[in-house]
Amino acid sequence: MRGHVRERGKGNWYAVIDRPDPATGKRRQKWQKLKARGKRAAQIECARLVSQVNDGVYVDSKKITLRQFLETWLAFKKPNVSPRSYQRYEELALKNIAPLLGEITLTQLRAEHISQAYAKAIDSGRRNGKGGLSAGTVHHMHRVLRQALQQAVRWDRLAKNPRHAGEKRPTQD
Questions:
Q1: Rounded to whole angstroms, how far apart are CA atoms 66 and 144?
Q2: pTM listed for this prediction
Q3: In what order do the strands lie in the sheet with 2-7?
Q4: Bigger pLDDT: 11 or 86?
Q5: Residue 161 CB neighbour total at 10 angstroms
Q6: 8-37, pLDDT tens digit by residue?
């Protein structure tokens, strides 16, 4: 596996990673935007990405769905919370959030998708199909999703938490 860096515009660095297509064997290039300042920092970041691809630990965040990310996040969360809390997180994430939003790619998730999912959960969110979820349950869903998306931002899977897109923060006087 090889890679190099390219600058597109002033200060916008990309890693270009050459890798073979598993189906055809032809060379495919993966362009990844880097958060590097300067060519040397971009080269170091590119080398790290090439190493991850070679080791098999690189995950293309453009292809990971919210359901897959929630499963990863739950595995991360499990040793840090009590068994009962983990059980509730798992229930909210996989049985309430994932059926509504799980098939959306993580990078394509928007605040409007989340708001629509909450509205649908209140109207007809029960798994047995007889009515909606309570406002308290939807609030708990919101808290779990917010925590998971904040972790996605910390892990550089997302540039910003889509739940906060377009919301204005109250100013402090």
A1: 13
A2: 0.64
A3: 2-7, 13-20, 27-33
A4: 86
A5: 18
A6: 788 788 777 877 766 777 887 777 777 778
Please tell me whether residue 73 adopts helix, strand or coil conformation: helix
Tokens of 36: 């590097």
The domain 66-164 having CATH identifier 1.10.150.130: the answer here is: yes
Q: What is the domain partition of the chain in residue ranges? A: 2-55, 66-164
Nearest to 47 by CA among 91, 105, 92, 5: 5
Q: Position 103: which residue type? A: E
- 6-to-19, 33, 61, 78 alpha-carbon distances in Å: 17, 10, 21, 40
- Tell me what the mean pLDDT of segment 81-95 comes to: 93
Query: Which residue, 159, 38, 48, 53, is CA-closest to 107?
Result: 159
